[in-house]
Design brief:
Distance between the termini: 53 Å
Order of helices and strands: HHHHHHHH
Structural class: mainly alpha
Shape: globular
Radius of gyration: 17 Å
Helix content: over 70%
Number of helices: 8
Length: 210
Amino acid sequence: MESDFAAQIGPILPWLDMLGIAVFAATGALSAARHGQTVVTAAFFALVTGVGGGTVRDLLIGAPVFWTHDAVVAAMILGVAAIVWVTPQRWWNDATFDWLDAFGLAAYAAFGAAKALGYGIPPVPAALMGVITACVGGIIRDMLAGQPSILMRPELYVTAAALASALYVVLTLAGLAPLAAGLIAAAAGFGLRAAAIVWKLGLPAYRSRR
């Protein structure tokens, strides 16, 4: 099944996956560093943030958990954590954190939807798998750091992941090549998240009807 999936998805889209993993790993290591933790804790944060969403996705769609079968993933995550650890703190301000997270969110959402489709998941659940892939790692990171999750802020976040994953599914069903669909979907998700960061865009909050 893994080889069939690789053949369907093409040679380029997995780079979206690696991009998402790398930038999410960086946000995990950065979160630990900003809380004054050790390099070991930073590496652990990088690992659970980088692979958390993809692990949940693979378990739900019945796929082998990707990073336990690919030595490159864990090595890359540890390398990212080391880079964050040895670079000056001024490089990693709140804006850098937000933009890294936005890149990871969009790339991971598109690839998550692509992998779910490749494993025979129907379109709507496949789009939801993209959202899970993109968001769960960040949720774990925030929980471990003891800080409010990005999901609890009014800014568009899950919506951006949903746009990227749903657009990938729609474009693929319309007959667009996986590479083009992935790049367009990731760009759209990143664009929406970027707009939310710059202009503080958000959906209306629930109001009690008492």
